[in-house]
Amino acid sequence: MMPKIVIPDDCPLVMAASPVYRGLASEFPVDCHDTLPGSAERLVERIREADIVINIRASTKFTAEVLHRCPNLRLISVWGTGTDNVDLASAQARGITVTNTPGVAAVAVAEHCLALMLAVARGVPRLDNETRRGRWPRGEVTQLHGKTLGIMGLGAIGRQFARLGEGIGMKVIAWTLHPNPALGFDLVSFEDLFRHSDVVSVHLRLSPETEGLLGRREFGWMKPTAILVNTARGPIVDEEALVEALSTGRIAGAGLDVFETEPLPPGHPFTRLSNVVLTPHSAGITAEALQAGLQMAADNVRNFLAGNPTNVVLPRRAGHL
After folding, report:
1. pLDDT tens for each residue of 121-175
2. Angle at the Cα of 156 from the Cα atoms of 254 and 209, rounded to 5 degrees
3. Where does the chain hold its CATH 3.40.50.720 domain(s)?
4. Which residue among 92, 113, 206, 299 is buried most deeply as judged by most CB within 10 Å?
5. Which is the catalytic residue, given 68, 195, 262, 302?
6. Model confidence band, residue 14 (pLDDT cutoffs 50, 70, 90)
7. Close Cβ partners of 290 (under 8 Å, ≥ 6 residues apart)
8. DSSP per-residue letters across 163-216
9. Has domain 5-104+286-305 been given CATH number 3.40.50.720?
10. Is 260 a catalytic residue?
11. Residue among 46, 159, 203, 233 flagged as catalytic
């Protein structure tokens, strides 16, 4: 029998609009939903009979209860690197394979990190706004050449951004949960990364070990001229502590693509701070990365059905993106 494949959360539309989807749908019956489930109950309604789920949005949570109510489920193919929306231990216990698409968006996300870092350091949004209003603002901005870039996590994205930082003349130091001197970066202690960096960029997976990892203590270690960049996951950073650090001048600014609650609620304190640059969890969404990731997610399905699963994710310690 043909496997039942369900895409429960293709909203905003990416998969169904791609040639990858047309290729997959020509081989297998695919049930694609172009709205978000919105609740665990609605998610179960959509995937209860599924053998395979292709997960598009991290806001869709595959909890132990959801997995328990989907007895046919054999594979969750996640589009993206992060799998914190899947209860991996429960999936493993139920014999459900989970796959992801590692590395395909590394260049796109690293470029976005560079854009956020430069936008904050150079005050680009403020200068753009003032110029459009007929003003001709002057004032000092930050030059990054010769400054220190601190990388938290040396996975594919962290390494790529480190290279970009070196390319504009920054000194790169790094801290990682799994040190590997062979990577060739100057590894420092957790505390020293914050104390010595002019820019701290987060490239860690969200896990029980990393949730709330950056808080008041860490911002207290940072230079008052320092910038935080986060394109990993919002809950890694204590948002209340970050708002306090930004509003009191404890640190100089932040470039954020991820948040504790997404979409970012209207009127959130971040939206009222002039030293923050915000983007809507879009760092990895370039045309090139989009198609490569969707293709890998579809290929993970094909390979699983052929008995040769690829990019399998298991319950693991905290890691890096």
Report:
1. 999 999 999 999 999 998 889 999 999 999 999 999 999 999 999 999 999 999 9
2. 65
3. 5-104+286-305, 106-278
4. 113
5. 262
6. very high
7. 14, 18
8. HHHHHTT-EEEEE-SS--GGG--EE--HHHHHHH-SEEEE-B--STTTTT-BSH
9. yes
10. no
11. 233
Whole-prediction pTM: 0.88
Amino acid at 41: E
Q: Is 135 assigned a catalytic role? A: no
Q: Which residues of 231-268 are buried (b: 16+ CB within 10 A; e: fewer)?
A: bbbbbbbbbebbbebbeeebbbbbbbbbbbeeebeeeb
**What is the Cα–Cα distance from 50 to 42, expressed in whole angstroms?**
14
Percent of the chain with pLDDT over 70: 98
Query: If pLDDT is split at 50, 70 and 90, which confidence band does 316 have?
Result: low
User: Which two structure tokens, joined as six digits, stand for 257?
Assistant: 């693509």
Is-catalytic flag, 233? Answer: yes
CATH number for domain 106-278, candidates 3.40.50.300, 3.20.20.390, 3.40.50.720, 3.90.230.10:
3.40.50.720
Of 33, 57, 281, 320, the catalytic one is: 281
Mean pLDDT of 314-320: 60
